[in-house]
Amino acid sequence: PSRSFHGNNRLLTSQIISYYESINQCKKELPEYFNFASDVLDEWARLEKDGRKPTNPAFWWVNDEGEEVKWSFEELGSLSRKAANALSGACGLQRGDRVIAVLPRVPEWWLLNVACMRAGIVLIPGTSQLTAKDISYRLQASKAKCIITSDTLAPAVEPVLPGSQFLKSKLLVGQGSRDGWLNFKELL
Q1: DSSP H or E stretch at residue 116
Q2: Catalysed reaction(s) (predicted)?
């Protein structure tokens, strides 16, 4: 039994979980189509919801000031589905499209990683230390259709964007807003 997702036949999540020991012992190969977000994260959320797995945080982030963000598997799954829908809908991205994320390691960085996995979008991570030349090169070489950055890094990123002929959307993470940018928090 298999199910279809974007035209690909994939093993059912329960089959993947049941193969764990044989995969771990190198007796079976990994399935051809595997998606961590749907095949693992969603399965763990279901197991927790059914009471077959103890509840543990899927994500736990603490910054230098002690601010804390903690998401359960169900919350991370739900948020990543919303983020994947925002990337596919408002940003117009499709499976295989590339996205460059120039973000500090804020919770949204991890959320976007899972959302991209879920949607089949290729995430190209970049640090906040990238120069304008670095960003410009990455945009052109990757043919990225979207760039994601924080409201504090956007002023440094924005000057190189007009030179990117492939860029379709710009996504801003944070409290601020900028003309021509979509706000990630509002999209969620």
Answers
A1: helix 107-119
A2: a medium-chain fatty acid + ATP + CoA = a medium-chain fatty acyl-CoA + AMP + diphosphate
CA distances from 74 to 35, 40, 81, 116 (A): 16, 12, 11, 17
pLDDT in tens, 82-109: 999 999 999 999 999 999 999 998 999 9
Determine phi and psi for 75, rounding to 5 degrees.
-65, -45
The answer to whether 126 and 136 have CB atoms below 8 angstroms apart is no
Contact call for residues 178 and 154 (beta carbons, < 8 A): yes
Is 39 in contact with 32 (CB distance < 8 Å)? Answer: no
Please, are residues 164 and 153 in contact by the beta-carbon 8 Å criterion? no
Give burial (CB, 10 Å; 0-12/13-18/19+) of 150. Answer: buried
Find the range with the poorest average confidence among 18-27, 35-44, 143-152.
18-27
Structure tokens at 73: 């598997």
Q: Which two tokens stand for residue 89?
A: 């809908």
What distance lies between CA 102 and its chain's CA centroid? 13
Contact 148, 156 (CB under 8 A): no
Listed by start position, the domains of the chain span 36-186
Structure tokens at 5: 């997702």
CB atoms within 10 A of CB 96: 10
CATH 3.40.50.980 fits 36-186, yes or no: yes
